[in-house]
Amino acid sequence: MIPAPFAYRRAESAEHAIELLSEFGEDAKLLAGGHSLLPIMKLRLATPAVVIDIGSVPGLSYIRDGGGEIAIGALTRHVQLEMSSLLRLQVPLLRHAASAVGDCQIRHRGTIGGAVSHGDPAADIPAALMALRATMVLQGPQSRRSMPIDDFYLGFLETALAPDEVLVEIRVPRPGPAPWGFQKFRRRSIDWAIVGVAYQGGDNPGIGLVNMGPTTVRAAAAEVAVLSGSAIEEAALLADAEAAPVEDAAASIAYRRHLSRVLLRRALAGEASS
């Protein structure tokens, strides 16, 4: 399908993008890599009057060592995450999750900020960031503010970003030498996951679920079980305790719940990702 008519503006900086958002308000949408926005525009699920292209904004593509955490610019592309030696050594869960996104063309174009800001519960990267207990850095007309990823997602395709704010950075705590796992089940290698699980071990273990509710879901009960030293099988049975999956053409609710338990067991056991 063809998108509805729209005006196109190219932002020259993050500040310029915020100015344009302030000018056009809720009639505007940001375009980074395009893999999230353009498909829903073609389906007329989104009909912005103005598309603001931030894909070439300087200074928002980086992966930096910030001491106790890793700072990642919102325009960092999936392939940069996948190829990063810093992430390979310090945050291998995020590097691996990025390598599992779509195909090489998608990974060369898509950005971490776009994947996070779109708010799609079927996306892989947000689940990995939830398991890692990441912090979102948002920039508005007056200042920046930070919030934990748990507070960022409000509903299906809905985030805490104000109409005049831009996600500029994501901060990921260093998990240290701890176990991790990433599992997802899909029909074909480039499909969205029917269900996915991201697990990060350590002193404060985290578990994020893909496609198990209207937003990315934290498996809090399973996290408590892991922290308390419960057996893998016992912790895995709690995978869907906080989930609210829906039935669609890909899977029933019961099947999604079953998959979440199976995949969490595999992630906790350190099995190779599928």
Task: Describe the protein's topology.
Layout: E1 7-10, H1 14-24, E2 28-31, H2 37-42, E3 50-53, E4 63-65, E5 69-73, H3 78-83, H4 85-90, H5 92-99, H6 104-109, H7 112-118, H8 124-131, E6 135-139, E7 144-148, H9 149-152, E8 153-155, E9 158-159, E10 166-173, E11 180-185, E12 195-200, E13 206-210, E14 217-218, H10 220-227, H11 232-236, H12 253-269
Parallel strand pairs: 1-3, 2-3
Antiparallel strand pairs: 4-5, 5-10, 6-7, 6-10, 8-9, 11-12, 12-13, 13-14
Helix pairs in contact: 5-8
- What is the CATH domain class of the largest domain? Alpha Beta
Strand line-up across the major sheet: 4-5-10-6-7
Give the second-level CATH assignment, the architecture of the largest domain.
Answer: 2-Layer Sandwich
SSE order, as H and E? EHEHEEEHHHHHHEEHEEEEEEEHHH
Helical content stands at 25-40%
End-to-end CA span: 33 Å
Give the rounded overall mean pLDDT. 94
**How many extended strands?**
14
Major sheet size, sense and barrel closure: 5 strands, antiparallel
Strand content: 15-25%
Q: What is the fold-level CATH name, i.e. the topology of the largest domain?
A: Uridine Diphospho-n-acetylenolpyruvylglucosamine Reductase, domain 3
User: What's the tally of helices?
Assistant: 12
How many domains comprise the coordinates?
3
Structural class, judged by helices and strands?
A: alpha+beta
Kindly provide the radius of gyration, computed on alpha-carbon positions and rounded to a whole number of angstroms.
18 Å
Shape: globular
* Poorly predicted regions: none
